[in-house]
Amino acid sequence: MSINNKFGLKAGQIAGALAIMLAALFWSIDGLFIRPKFYVLPAELVVFLEHMLGFIVLSPFIFVYWHKIKALSTKSWLALGWVSVFGGLIGTIFITKAFFAAMDGEVSFATVVILQKLQPIFALLLARLILKEKLDKRFYKWAIVAIVASYFIAFIKTGLNLSNIDWAHNGALFAFIAAFAFGSSTVFGKRISNHLDYKAVAALRFGLTSILAFILIIITVPFKNFNLVSLEQWGLLGIIVLTSGAGSMFIYYFGLRRVPASTATVLELFWPFSALVLDYVFNRNYLNWMQIIALVILLIAFYKISVLGRLKKTIFSGRVIHGQGRGKLLGYPTANLDKIDLDIAHGVYAVRVNFDGKSYLGLMHFGFKDVFREAVSLEILIKDFSGDIYGEELKVEVLGKIRELEKFASPEILVEAIKKDLQSLAQGAY
Q1: How far apart are CA 268 and CA 191, in angstroms?
Q2: pTM score, whole prediction
């Protein structure tokens, strides 16, 4: 692997990690300073308004990426539905209800936060079970370190632990449900962001959640409550859209495309760090020495997680089917496979193909075709191989990503890109 390309890959991972941490910072600002201003309103109404306004801002991306949206597989639509129902609707409603319960003194704020911090546990388990994310063992060790450090940062002063939580209390139950909803949403959000641009993912999530929330408030919220929204609250809703709402989701899905779901959900624990900093700046609440130590450990864990959060090799099998013959016309015949719903991002990859007891290097194009961009294809250019393999089963090991997919202005430019990809393959630059 070339040094420049190696550092470029790490830079992409770090950029994704920083994006998720920035989104978490916006969520901290929301929870500490903005959302408490709405506690006199029904939580369902607040969720509907913030998602409706967010969708208005993001809706142009629906039209921009419509050709890709209508080509999504059934599995991707189901993943998007899960994200909208659990991450957009249920998670947001229940965490809002939990914070409102804390504002009313029904449950402690610390109880809400400690239960919501169960989110990484749900996400790590689901990422393993659903996405089959097999990460370096050191990743899980540092994930545990990050979770423990976050608990120390948030609760060392109060001494709260799980045995003190009244699980039958509504506020505690709301936070627990929100933790599951957000954790599972991270996993399914990763699945959909692999196959669709993050801007379109954010727009679809806000659009579907708006529809669901609207149906819910028609059933549960009296119409007169719409008149309770003050001018100040409308202004705060605008701030939410640009920061912790549509703005943070836009940034979050940018980051989620670049790191595994397991990494993303632990990086979201940047919440306690940013909350402590904001608490000091605005409220002059100081950290004790144990919190400072935990903070340093947390930052080290974040760095380790961003570096170790690269997935191990993806291996799959697929049967060779007839394609359109475009590769053959260009002088680079490809094998089209029937396996086109992988849980990896679209792009051009270096692969190792095993067939008939032999192993070959190759290039894999996974995603929308360059010309006809309304269907997803999986094509493999097998290096140093010729022969009729239609109907045969190929075992493919994904070695690494070479580049993103591009739209080429002419066949000649496409051919030059293929030549460069083959050079990268020969040099191991992936």
Answers
A1: 18
A2: 0.69
